[in-house]
Each structure stands twice: as C-alpha cells, then as structure tokens.
Design goal:
about 325 residues, seven-stranded parallel sheet, Leucine-rich repeat, LRR (right-handed beta-alpha superhelix), two-stranded antiparallel ribbon, alpha/beta
C-alpha cells in the first residue's frame, strides 16, 4: 500500500480519480474501494463516486437474487443466463445491459418468454436492454435468444445500434422467432447483422417481415461510388436461416435464389421458407422449391474441389 501511495503522490487528483473510475465494478467493488483508501486525498475526492458504487452494488445484488443467485460473483462468472420467469422489470433489463462490460464469461443469454404478463417489459424490454449495451459489452456472448419477446421495429433498431457500438462481437446464433419484427425493423437490423463476422444461425420465423426486409439482409444495394467495400461480415459464415411463417412472397424467394446463385451466402447449408406447418404462406410451393434447388446448387459448388498448386480447396470450381 505504501508503494501505491507513493505512486499516487506523483499523479494529479484528476488522474487518480480516472484510475478509480476505471476500477469501479458494481459486481466486485472491493478493488476500487481498496484503491481509493491508498491516500487521504483520493479517499476525499472519491466520496461521491464510492456512494454511487455502493448504490450500484446494492442494485446488482438485488438483480442477482432475482436471477436465483445469492452473490454477485455467481453472475460475474456465469456462462449461461436464462431470464425466463424471473420477473425482471425495465430497470432490471437496463441494469443488465449496463453490466455488459463486467460479464466477460457469459456465452449464452436467453430471454425466451421472459416478459410474459408484464406489459411494459413486453413492449419496451429489449429496447431498454439494448440502449444500455455499449462498446465491448457481453464480449463472449455467442448465443442470444429473444424468442417470443416483443422486440418490434423499435427494439430491432435499438439492438442494431448496440451491435453497431461493438456489443456482442462474437455473436454466432441469434433467435428472433416470433418477436414482431417487420420490414422496417429488419431493414434497420440487417446492416449490423451483415457486419457480425461470426454469425452462423439466424431465426426469423413467425415475424411480419417481407420482401423488403429480406432484400436488405441478403441482397443489399452496392455501396455508393467511391465508398470502400466492406472488409468483413456480409453473412459469410451464415449456415442456417429460418424464415418460416413470414410475409415473404414469390419476389422474396426470387431474391433468395439470386443471392444463392451469385454466391452471396457462401456457407448456407439450411434455409426455411416453408413446408408443412412452417410454410411461408405468402409464397407459392414452386417458389419455395426454387429456393431449395438454388441452395442445393450453392452447396454443390461449395463442396466441389479444385486443384491449385497441387492442393485441394473447398468452395471453388475445378480449374
């Protein structure tokens, strides 16, 4: 502690406070509090911040208890978080979003049916959560499930903004099944999804989205003249796309066929535009068959080997 005090003596009060703020973690406030006690000057300067830290810790403790944990350490170290049936409020979801930077281990986050029977959470819960997700939030989350939550177009736009700020950079699977997202929501969300370099599975079943939203996702217009091309993403790793029970028509199916034939979805292995009880009712059986055949062609091209420099590569044609 003496060495810390000596080092602090060489810093200004503002510099000491900046370090203190960077150490603040409402799930583990001990480090920041210990640091602030290294000198009487810093202790006096951080009195207000320590009080705010205590309030944040108390709120986080209450949230942890709702989630079924007795200690904040359990949330801090959790790899899976299932919010179903926890009775979370709008404030709870906002707090959870703000905790994103201090949940480094979390990999799976599920909200399936989490807002059932709570009207304000049903309407605004995802939006409140997303608005609090900043750059680098939830850095390890790979699987996010909003199934049956009322995301809506506003929630989709807020979630797109969160992804644009750099939240959830390792997202692999996104489940938006039956979340009330229409064309406007998917148009807002599509650019952010296309920039997710690891995205492999996207579930949009049961949403009132149609051809416009689909085109924004799989066949966006080219960038303006002179603008640099995108350097990553573009759904390059997308393997599974669920579009059953949407409002996609034959025109949307034609967009999918074009995207597949042009190589815009190079990793796609499975797509659902409907058969049986999961059919997309607005498009004909012939159009759905055309999509299936286009996927088979794309899969065949991707699996066809090519000899180059004495080696075989997947995804090219034979030279």
């Amino acid at each position: 502690m003496a060495r810390v005090a000596m080092a602090l003596s060489k810093l200004s009060g503002d510099e000491q406070c900046i370090i203190f703020v960077q150490l603040c973690n409402v799930l583990d406030p001990r480090v920041a509090v210990a640091f602030s006690s290294a000198s009487s000057e810093l202790w006096a300067l951080t009195q207000s911040e320590r009080q705010q830290l205590k309030v944040g810790y108390d709120m986080a403790t209450s949230l942890c208890r709702k989630l079924g944990w007795r200690r904040c350490k359990q949330l801090r170290e959790a790899k899976t978080l299932d919010c179903d049936g926890r009775g979370l409020t709008l404030d709870d979801l906002g707090l959870l979003g703000s905790l994103g930077p201090v949940l480094p281990a979390l990999e799976v986050l599920e909200f399936y049916n989490a807002a059932a029977g709570i009207p304000d959470v049903e309407l605004h819960g995802v939006q409140r959560l997303a608005e609090k997700l900043g750059a680098g939030a939830l850095p390890a989350v790979s699987d996010l499930n909003f199934q049956t939550m009322c995301v809506g177009d506003e929630g989709a736009s807020a979630f797109a903004a969160a992804l644009g700020r750099g939240a959830m950079p390792r997202l692999i699977s996104l489940d938006l099944t039956d979340t009330e997202i229409g064309d406007a929501g998917l148009v807002a969300l599509a650019p952010a999804l296309r920039r997710q370099p690891e995205l492999e599975s996207l579930y949009l079943w049961g949403n009132p989205l149609g051809d416009e939203g689909l085109a924004a996702l799989v066949a966006p217009p080219p960038p303006p003249a002179g603008a640099p091309p995108p350097t990553s993403g573009g759904l390059a790793k997308l393997k599974r796309l669920e579009l059953g029970f949407t409002q996609i028509t034959d025109a949307g199916c034609a967009t999918l066929v074009s995207a597949l034939d042009s190589g815009m979805l190079p990793a796609l292995k499975w797509i659902q535009v409907g058969s049986g009880h999961r059919a997309t009712p607005a498009c004909t059986s012939a159009s759905r068959t055309a999509v299936t055949e286009a996927l088979e062609r794309a899969t065949s091209r991707a699996a066809r080997p090519c000899r180059r420099s004495g080696r075989f590569k997947v995804g090219a044609t034979r030279s």
